[in-house]
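Quick one, probably user error.
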């Protein structure tokens, strides 16, 4: 095929931008990154634990589903520009069906006349079909939070996906992929792979891989490192045009976090620090499939306007296990919501909740304290330590949720919520969306599996 990639100039830093922090992030990000400044790689991170179970259910209904459909729309918007500028794309949009995602992307490429586009597919993370055999072979899949063994709960598992690392993505890039589509992989690995590939690093050089991992972690949540969701939000300029992050990587392992010139938002030591501290657990041993990174060794320094230099990362060899994230059927839930307005809104809302559960119990439909949740939004439930005993809000949103193994019982709750509009205290309003209905409730089960039990596969195919 004829390559559409422009080689990175000698001495030029490798620029990797992340345009997606989760499935639901703005579609503006990818477009901004590929059009408003220099870029070599675009990464897109779609997956969270609950997303995998949703995608597994979608695939169970339709064998051609199970991937992040927004990714296909994004490709349609940016592929011509990426080919023109030689930007390669790495995304975990494959969910539980990377092959179907790749076919959908290939269809877009054909429709756009983008023949010669090479699409890489990384598979092997989906362990659902192999889970019974793993348990039978003696893998206990101990829950990392509770210490329980999966054992007899295998039949309740809805999804099971190992967090793969950078190695198969590096292979796909080495095989010439313009677009790499993976299922579940570690978030930071989406950026680690292009850095390792382009700069010629070895995955056995643990300090360099740790540096790339720190960089990948900084940009993995998109604008969360460029002023989004930032405590000192008043000093973040032009949030309406917030810039998505760009990571500059240098051969010696130095990184610079920045964004395209002319975009809004803010990149400084504070915004980058806030993201570094996000979801890292033990900062001295951040475990990924690629390396165990020591975040306490990292130094941040100002490198000019909207530029932060990252140095000093240290790493240790990776473990011989992958994290596997399972979701298990855990019964059913329903959530009902009413707005309660007027004087004494909190007191009236609390009475409505008591009335509801008393009436249900009289009908033999009891929910214990650990099966129900009552919240008066607007009265300080998110930060109860700040709640004032003298504050009387003019309205609150009463949100009531229940859970139970019996779907009929949960549906019975849903049928009773609206009755409080006429048979409770005054001021209840705002009931919309119909009666709450029972939906499946899922529990998260994190565990470890030996890497030898998870053989990843890589294939690269060219769009004719």
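Nope, works fine. Designed sequence:
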């Amino acid at each position: 095929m004829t390559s559409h990639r422009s080689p990175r100039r000698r001495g030029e830093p490798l620029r990797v931008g992340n345009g997606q922090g989760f499935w639901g992030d703005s579609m503006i990000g990818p477009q901004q990154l590929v059009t408003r400044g220099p870029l070599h790689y675009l990464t897109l991170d779609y997956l969270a634990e609950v997303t995998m179970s949703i995608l597994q259910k979608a695939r169970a209904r339709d064998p051609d589903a199970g991937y992040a459909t927004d990714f296909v729309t994004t490709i349609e918007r940016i592929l011509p520009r990426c080919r023109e500028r030689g930007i390669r794309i790495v995304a975990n949009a494959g969910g539980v069906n990377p092959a179907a995602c790749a076919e959908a992307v290939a269809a877009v490429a054909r429709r756009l006349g983008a023949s010669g586009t090479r699409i890489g597919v990384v598979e092997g993370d989906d362990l659902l079909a192999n889970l019974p055999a793993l348990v039978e072979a003696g893998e206990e899949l101990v829950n990392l939070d509770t210490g329980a063994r999966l054992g007899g709960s295998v039949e309740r598992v809805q999804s099971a996906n190992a967090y793969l690392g950078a190695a198969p993505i590096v292979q796909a890039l080495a095989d010439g992929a313009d677009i790499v589509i993976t299922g579940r992989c570690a978030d930071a690995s989406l950026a680690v792979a292009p850095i390792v590939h382009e700069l010629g690093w070895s995955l056995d050089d643990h300090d360099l891989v740790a540096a790339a991992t720190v960089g990948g972690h900084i940009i993995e949540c998109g604008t969360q490192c460029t002023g989004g969701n930032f405590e000192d939000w008043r000093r973040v300029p032009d949030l309406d045009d917030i810039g998505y992050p760009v990571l500059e990587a240098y051969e010696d392992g130095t990184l610079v976090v920045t964004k395209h010139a002319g975009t809004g938002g803010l990149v400084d030591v504070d915004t980058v620090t806030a993201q570094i501290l996000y979801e890292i657990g033990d900062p001295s041993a951040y475990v990924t499939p690629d390396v165990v990174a020591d975040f306490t060794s990292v130094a941040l320094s100002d490198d000019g306007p909207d530029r932060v230099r990252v140095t000093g990362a240290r790493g240790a060899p990776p473990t011989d296990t992958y994290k596997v994230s399972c979701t298990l059927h855990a019964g059913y839930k329903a959530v009902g919501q009413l707005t309660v307005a007027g004087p004494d809104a909190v007191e009236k809302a609390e009475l409505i909740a008591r009335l509801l559960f008393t009436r249900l119990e009289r009908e033999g439909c009891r929910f214990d304290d650990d099966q129900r949740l009552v919240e008066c939004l607007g009265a300080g439930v998110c930060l109860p330590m700040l709640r004032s005993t003298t504050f009387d809000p003019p309205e609150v949103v009463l949100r009531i949720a229940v859970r139970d193994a019996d779907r009929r019982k949960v549906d019975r709750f849903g049928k009773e919520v609206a009755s409080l509009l006429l048979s409770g205290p005054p001021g209840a309003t705002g009931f919309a969306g119909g009666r709450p209905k029972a939906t499946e409730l899922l529990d998260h089960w994190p565990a470890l599996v030996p890497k030898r039990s998870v053989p990843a596969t890589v294939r690269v195919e060219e769009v004719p």
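The first helix runs from residue 28 to 35.
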